Amino acid sequence: AAEQENVGNLKRKLAKLFQLSLDATVPGEPDIEPQVAACTAKFGDYQCNNAMGLWSKIKGRPGIEFRGPPAAIMKNLPQSEMIESCSVAGPGFVNVVLSKNWMAQVRLLWLQNIQKMLVDGIETWAPKLSIKRAVVDFSSPNIAKEMHVGHLRSTIIGDTLASMLEFSNVEVLRRNHVGDWGTQFGMLIEFLFEKFPNFEDVNETAIGDLQAFYKESKQRFDVDAEFKDRAQKAVVRLQSGEQMYRKAWAQICEISRREFDQVYQRLGVHLEEKGESFYNPHIPGVIEALTNQGLVEESKGARVIFIEGINIPLIVVKSDGGYNYASTDMTALWYRLNEEKAEWIIYVTDVGQQQHFDMVFKAAKRAGWFPADDRQYPKASHVGFGLVLGEDGKRFRTRSTEVVRLADLLDEAKTRSKAALIERGKAAEWTEEELEQTAEAIGYGAVKYADLKNNRLTNYTFDFDQMLNDKVKMPFPACLLLCEGNTAVYLLYAHARICSIIRKSGKDTEELKKTGKIVLDHADERVLGLHLLQFAEARQVVEEACSNLLPNVLCEYLYNLSENFTRFYSNCQVVGSAEETSRLLLCEATAVVMRKCFFLLELYRTLMA
Ligand code: ARG
């Protein structure tokens, strides 16, 4: 009976039993979904949480009204070999104690599963997705414009999603869809010609601040009609491929690119640039194909695709005959599906672009690029995220500028974590280089984790003090920065502590893995063991985070893992106990899973510091 039982299965089985009970308890209310959860309390293994919501529904139902829904749910629960006993807890819960015999069989399988992971590697716990190749379109800043905190969020979230898919054996094309095309290049090029007649020798030091350069040329464009005229002509000349214009354009892109690369390097993010310009040659063909399908219509001089339920159409050719953001995105989507054969195409931008992507996807669906059933591949998903807010609750800004520059922000994270390290006397212990590297790793890691742990759709408040929270001071073997709360540093500390427990035991875990056995007799061992297993399970952590594109699910898992470990460690003696071997293996398994989480959340460099 215990064959194939994993935690998810077990929960589903219990849910089925409770479904039968709920149907009998409140007949005529078919839509009540059983809520079954593991309980950490000592009264049981699992609990059903439906009762509280039923008090209003049982009024006037004799029998139930008297003793209340929990008792009724318990009474109506069918007999099962799984269940040893049940009890009512307050007005809202029914607790279940699972059968010892049945669980012993199940648990044996679980133990084998953990042990197998330890021997064969964490890859045995990778989710199985049904696709081979995906595109993750993320970061995607615009040339010569500011790379702002929105792009930072896109970079961090996109990178993590890509890593999770890669862990799931999906080949990921990490695409930087930089804004390297468009009318703004006319004015930039003309301005470059004007300021630097020998523009080909110009490098970033000569131009200085590219954003300032952009602003200056925009000012010119707005007030000087003659310049504006030249700039507009420059766009045409660029687009028709005139060599000098192409060169100037490439020059500007290159300078921007170097700036972006510095940020990627600091964050340890890898992605491949295929900017808007890459898709240009394919646009006419794609529009023609859509036109031949009868999808493109004439509207106010422009050529557009109408989409059901949305009152504005998707403009694919502007009234002046030029292409726009949407023409490029339709073409990039076509390219990714047909040339790159990607089955899942994921776009990471702020929620402000949701309607744009909604329209692009729906237009593609009208063209038959996607199956009618949204759950089937190939499919496209927009991963939107909320605003970054300052402590005043308004859009995040620094004192002086309108937008926060990414480089400044990373500088500040580093400065702060360095100050914290110096405060702990690290300047005397470490070389300047070690100090720098550790400060960077911790500072950037803190920024990443603070972003990822939130549900991406909610706005989040950027707060350095909170993300580098270091209220509790204790010795720390790896980076000696101690933290409390749901922060990167706290989690890294938890991991370092586990490693030091194993180290201090003097045992070789490689040997233990082969010969030792894990037992989960203590309640806190069991909770920890079950939590570890959830990492691997279908519809559990990584797969859920992947399928629903929600990195915070993984953060939450990681945080709970370290909490469960702490509870286990404070109640179960490891070194020198009768269960030493088993408990060391449990420590090791926890450390392995934590490291995988750090890797997926791109905190690995921080860990190595
Ligand atoms: N460059 C755009 C921006 O900064 C983001 C591009 C997102 N990707 C795409 N395929 N449209 O807002």
UniProtKB/TrEMBL annotation:
Ranges of residues in domain DALR anticodon binding: 491-603
One of the GO BP terms on file: arginyl-tRNA aminoacylation
Keyword terms of this UniProt record: Acetylation, Aminoacyl-tRNA synthetase, ATP-binding, Ligase, Nucleotide-binding, Protein biosynthesis
EC number: 6.1.1.19
One example GO MF annotation: arginine-tRNA ligase activity
EC class name: ligase
Catalytic activity, as annotated: tRNA(Arg) + L-arginine + ATP = L-arginyl-tRNA(Arg) + AMP + diphosphate
Arginyl tRNA synthetase N-terminal domain span: 12-98
GO cellular component terms attached to this protein's record: cytoplasm
Protein family membership: Belongs to the class-I aminoacyl-tRNA synthetase family.
Function in brief: Forms part of a macromolecular complex that catalyzes the attachment of specific amino acids to cognate tRNAs during protein synthesis.
Full protein name: arginine--tRNA ligase
Source organism (scientific name): Salix brachista
